[in-house]
Amino acid sequence: MALRDRRGYEIQLLLIVMLLASILMIVPFPAFSSQGEDVWKSSIEELAPDFVLKDLDGKEIRLADYRGKVVLLAFSTTWCPHCRKMPPYLNELRSKYGDSGLVIFNIDIQEPLKKVRSYAAKHDIKYRVLLDEKATVAKAYNVRGVPSLILVDKDGTIVCRQCRLLDVLLETLLPATQ
């Protein structure tokens, strides 16, 4: 009899845990829901936030000055293993679409100039590298991890985030020069 009572108790406990788990999946937590809203609000088809950042030579670069061109923003860091795979690919995109109006900005987040300059030289980066020293631009674009790619069209509108079909999008926005 004691074994049957114990099994009944275990089943009731399991049902309660399952019920609580299903409630947690349905009811949003405030800590997560406000963060999620930001991501959805700043998704695609909205005007890209303007910014001014310095490049590795100290020259100020303003995104608004590149209206009329397609701009790829590549948010990264020097310590990110996946970011290290990006320069050859982005160099190839620059070579293929640069003469057609593609501008690529690597936006390095919260790292010192000397370290980023060394990284850019080591990885033969052929596009402009910008320093987001206080992560203000990364925050404005709701960057949650690196690498993050954001494509902005000629009108300054965000076309995609974490573009899986970047090559296809670029082919529709720009003619290849290679």
Give a brief outline of the structure.
With 178 residues, the chain is α/β, with parallel strands linked by helices. It has helices spanning 2-26, 30-41, 86-97, 113-122, 136-140, 166-173, and strands at residues 52-55, 60-62, 70-76, 102-109, 128-132, 148-152, 158-161.
Structure characteristics:
178 residues; alpha/beta; Glutaredoxin; 7-stranded mixed sheet; 7 strands
Written account of the structure:
- By secondary structure, the chain is of the alpha/beta class.
- The chain contains six helices and seven strands; from the N terminus they run ααβββαβαβαββα.
- The protein has two domains: 2-37; 45-173, Glutaredoxin (3-Layer(aba) Sandwich), CATH 3.40.30.10.
- Helices cover 40% and strands 20% of the residues.
- It has a seven-stranded mixed beta sheet with strand order 2-1-5-4-3-6-7.
- The N and C termini lie far apart (81 Å).
- The model is unreliable at 26-42 (pLDDT under 50).
